[in-house]
Amino acid sequence: MSAVCEVQPSTTVTAVEALEVNVAMAKQDNDFRELLSELTLEEKVRLLSGESFTAAAGVKRLNIPPIKVADSTSGVRPSQHDSDMTTACFPNTTCLASTWDVDALEDLGEKLAKQAKMKSAQVVLGPNINMHRDPRGGRNFEAFSEDPLLAGHLAGAVVRGVQRHGVGSCPKHFVCNDSEYMRHYYDVAQSVDGRPLREIYLAAWSHLLRVSDPVSIMMAYNMVDGTYCSAQNDLIERILRKSWGYKGLVMSDWFGTRSTVEAVKAGLDLEMPFPVHRGPKLINAIKSGELTEAEIDERVMKHLELRNRTRESHADADAEEYSEIDEATNQTARKLAEGGIILLKNENATLPLDAGASTRLAVIGEFARDAVVTGGGSASCNPQYRIPPVEALKDVLSDPSRVSFSAGVKTRRVIPLAPASLLQTADGHAGVEIKYINDSSPDSPILVERREKPSVWMMGEFPKGLTVPGSRIELKTNFTCPSTGTHTLAVRRSGAFQLYVSGKEILTGSQPDVTTEQFIFNHILLESRVQMDMQEGAVYEIKLVVQSRDKMTIGEPTPYAASLCFEEFYDEEQAVIEATEAARTADTSIVFAGRDGQYESEGYDLGEIALPANQVALVRAVAAVSKRTILVLHCGNPIDVSAVVDDVDAIICAHFPGQEGSRALAAILTGKVNPSGRTATTWWKTLKDAPSFGDFPAQKDEEGNLTLKYQEGLQVGYRHPNKDRVQWPFGYGLSYTTFEYSDLKVSVSGAGSAATLDCSVTLINSGSRAGHEVVQVFVTPAEETSVWRPEQELRMFTKVFLSPGESKTVSLKDVLRVACSYWDETEKQWRMEEGSYGVCVGGLHSTFSVSEGELWDGL
User: Fold this and answer.
1) Which of 448, 454, 499, 822 has CB atoms 3.0–4.6 Å from 564's, for a disulfide?
2) 376-393: per-residue pLDDT in tens?
3) Is 613 exposed, middle or buried (0-12, 13-18, 19+ CB in 10 A)?
4) β-strands 50-52, 55-56: how paired?
5) Is 427 helix (H, G, I), strand (E, B) or coil?
6) Residue 703 lies inside a defined structural domain of this protein
């Protein structure tokens, strides 16, 4: 979670004041650290908390600027909460990981820095390097991989790119926020000195810090080994700072600070988004002797150092040299989508399509018309534009008239807002009339307003004079029905409600039992529905009354919301029939299916990974009558395709590919670009095949505590020994050309901590198309090892472009002990054992010897 809400505490600096501070900072050449002695205790404490949902506090008296932060790596959202503001929208992080392209992600980082400056933000909240432990993880789409080395190196490339021009990067969430269900409360029952954390979950962070130096790191909400991460001294001080030598600032996630004294002593520098456990509580702790001012100074120094490192970003914050839309940014977005899209299956020479042929194409599925660009939550963004995939495909075909479209079945988790075009107030204005009424004065609203959208969405900040609890919202409108049928009306709300249609109460509901976080993200928990027979052209008077919640939320903003939703009836059987008729007359059918941001989002996990039943029925019906069938899947997590995998000829994983994703997909489908994406996570045949099945999400123990157990230990993803359960393995992806590997050479050079593992291999493009190949180096453990180790582990990788017939010698190397070591739980250090190790590259195998074992710590 991060900058997602509208509430602003009374201490918020105005935009004009922030500009004045930024201008003053631009003129200031001194080291901000020198101002420590000039700060009062109150000013020091002020610096240790946020001042709003999108800014850490500053000190105007000394020209210490606030630090504006913005989500995220798929697209930098505005530093002010404005859902209508657009931004360049890049592919989701799993798509980025599927490129396996360090250079491309470093370029992405530079474009993100540019977008951040356009929005006057100094720190980008990302990338997210939590692990893909389970295919139901709600935020997996905005994280990289199940493999820590791949995640760490790619995240490090983003950080380097972002910070090259003075903008800061804040990777998240340290550590083990691999599930969204009750993430504020669950305890990961693992020691920070156990092998699973050290070799998988913490390892991603150590690889990140080997290749980059982020200005900040965000802590996770959850507990690890019984202590909240925001107060986990072992994580912050012992591991992150002392063992790994990290010098940057450590911040909480939003409302992720759970203590005053403990969090400061553990090394948490910044509480976001504003003082809950700090402010006056922190001053009192200092006065009572629970904390010393020296301990506060240590935390404050991190803030001053952060201002030094983001000085250039502040100086450029109001520059006008950056256009909102530019082709260089578009090319980066398109290149990333092209590089991440994965060809999973291709039989009967189905792909690529011949763009110049006179073949007939049936394009089926609502996602072909309504482009899926991003997942949900704080990693989502409002793209600058959306290109329907069916239109992008027509643009690259010689005869677009031969393309037919059928919408197919609907994929919905929540009912959409009632369209403003169907709504009118009693006095003739478009939209709805909204009254805010205190229970103490039911006949005298404190405010009456009109809105185009039938929705009120408040978080802690309410109209002046509104009593919370003790009030209600009344939303009124005249609804003109677009067609005759049994339509769906729905209400999403924060409190008890009544829905009236033409004076008759048709739906009621109690106050939903949800957390603030669930209110923000998991809207299905707020929704109640009713079906109603309605006539085309008829006007229905609708009144929605929503009560305030019965008590204020402690430590977080209190939600207050009312939304009127509507979905027109459609005949699902008829939709499938129409799709099959389109497929029957085509040479090739392309079916778009999978998920969008309603399903994969921050704030909740998936309940299953199988395709929805209506999508399965659609795909099977189309495939039964089509000469060739291509299935395009939108998803961040893997999908169980067992119900349809044998029915279709080709399958493409298109991810959530950003605003240029449709053009990228069209280029892949027609062979203009050779597919080069490789899976960054194992695709299991079914959910039950996943190693974490049965231990996800968190469950209550006998004492009622929410516990998340990592029962699979190290056997995450491809490290699991049972390969029969895999649909598509880690690192998998097909191509339109062929690559051959030869002449693998492996050696060890140097000695001691400077020793490196050196690998080289000859790669030739033996096919007829130019394209990229991902070279993956896996190391197998010593022949004799004292502990169980995975059969092989990724230790190096690179991406290479070759023209037809071209060959290259690819050389890679890394620190020997990083490539060979495991975590010794007894010694609490890394151990490299002597012996013979193996290397696997592109189906070739070699060995090398380690003559002397060693123990080592740190990075």
Assistant:
1) 454
2) 999 999 999 999 999 999
3) exposed
4) antiparallel
5) coil
6) no
Assign residue 280 the CATH number of its domain. Answer: 3.20.20.300
Same domain, 90 and 225: yes
Catalytically active residues, by annotation: 253
113: phi then psi, degrees, rounded to nearest 5: -60, -40
The most distant pair of C-alpha atoms in the chain lies apart, rounded to whole Å, by: 87
Three-state secondary structure call for residue 566: strand
Say if residue 81's pLDDT is above 90: no
Q: Across residues 835-857, what is the average pLDDT? A: 95
Mean pLDDT of the chain: 94
Is the entire prediction scored with pTM above 0.85? yes
Indicate the pLDDT class of residue 315, thresholds 50, 70 and 90: low
Looking at the domain assignment, is residue 697 inside a domain?
Answer: no
β-bridge partners, 763: 741, 808
Rounded CA separation 800/520 (Å): 43
If asked whether residues 498 and 478 sit together in one domain, one would say yes
CATH number of the CATH domain containing 382: 3.40.50.1700
Judge if the upstream peptide bond of residue 280 is cis by omega within 30 degrees of 0: no
| 10 has a pLDDT exceeding 70 | no
Overall residue count recorded for the chain in this entry: 859
β-sheet bridge partners, residue 172 = 128, 218
Are residues 506 and 637 located together in one domain of the fold? Answer: no
How much is the average pLDDT of 698-703? 91
Q: For the residues of 497-548, what is the DSSP string, one character each?
A: EEEEETTEEEEEE------HHHHHH-GGGGEEEEEEEE-TT-EEEEEEEEEP
pLDDT tier for residue 646 given thresholds of 50, 70 and 90: very high
pLDDT of residue 408 exceeding 50: yes
546 strand-pairing partners:
473, 497
Same domain, 562 and 577: no
Residue 80 in this model has a pLDDT that exceeds 80 = no
pLDDT reading at 314 higher than 80: no
Which residue, chain included where needed, has tokens 């392209």? Answer: 101
For residue 420, the SS3 value is helix
Tell me the pLDDT tens digit for each residue of 586-611. Answer: 999 999 999 999 999 999 999 999 99
**Confidence band of 558 (pLDDT split at 50, 70, 90):** very high
Q: Residue 323: which pLDDT band, with cuts at 50, 70 and 90?
A: low
Q: Based on the structure, what is the number of domains in the chain?
A: 4
Token output for 807: 């060959």
Give the residue from 674, 707, 728 where a domain finishes: 728
User: Side chain identity at 737, as an amino acid letter?
Assistant: T
Gap between the Cα atoms of 159 and 153, Å rounded: 10
> How many other C-beta atoms lie within 10 A of the C-beta of residue 825?
14
Q: Are residues 747 and 661 in the same domain?
A: no
Give mean pLDDT, residues 820-838: 96
Alpha-carbon distance of 298 to 248, in angstroms, equals 12
Query: Is residue 18 in some structural domain?
Result: no
Query: What pLDDT shows up at residue 83?
Result: 56
Q: What is the CATH number of the domain that holds 561?
A: 2.60.120.260
**What is the residue range of 774's domain?**
739-856
Domain boundary among 547, 567, 587: 567
Instruction: Give yes or no: residues 388 and 498 share one domain.
Output: no
Q: Which residue has the tokens 């000195």?
A: 193
CATH classification at residue 827: 2.60.40.10
Chain centre distance of CA 42: 36
Same domain, residue pair 310 and 342: no
Q: Minimum mean pLDDT among 7-21, 115-129, 418-432, 661-675: which range? A: 7-21
The verdict on 528 and 449 lying in the same domain is: yes
By C-alpha distance, which of 153, 183, 150, 127 is closest to 719? Answer: 150
Q: Which amino acid is at 76?
A: V
The pLDDT value given to residue 257: 97
Contacts of 34 (CB under 8 A, 6+ apart): none
- 44: in domain: yes
CA 337 to chain centre: 16
pLDDT band of 316, cuts 50, 70, 90: low
H helices then E strands: how many in the chain? Answer: 20, 42
